[in-house]
Write a structure and sequence with these properties.
- It is a single chain.
- The protein has one domain (about 1-80).
- Helices cover about 10% and strands about 25% of the residues.
- The chain is built from 1 helix and 6 strands; from the N terminus they run E-E-E-E-E-E-H.
- A 4-stranded antiparallel sheet has the order 3-4-5-6, with no helix packed on it. Strands 1-2 form a two-stranded antiparallel sheet.
- The two termini are about 25 Å apart.
- The mean pLDDT is about 90.
Amino acid sequence: MVIVGNSQRNFAVAYHRQMEDGTILNFTAIDDPANPTHIMRDDEGSVWNVFGIAVSGPRAGESLSKTRSFASYWFAFVAFFPDAEIHFNAT
């Protein structure tokens, strides 16, 4: 799964990384002041918005499927998922 959020806008959302065709995408956070809802790019070159929709690139128009998720403190989450990693764009 990929979890993205924004502390200034106070949100987080989780999506499955595996697409219907079986491809598992890897994501990198992006900061696009001209399009603040465009929040990540996958390893194939598509840009995705906060709603889980590819807005450009080879997967334009495709959607990520949402996960069943909930808000939690990090210490509680990592107790159940010890291999979890945090990635952020420190711009």
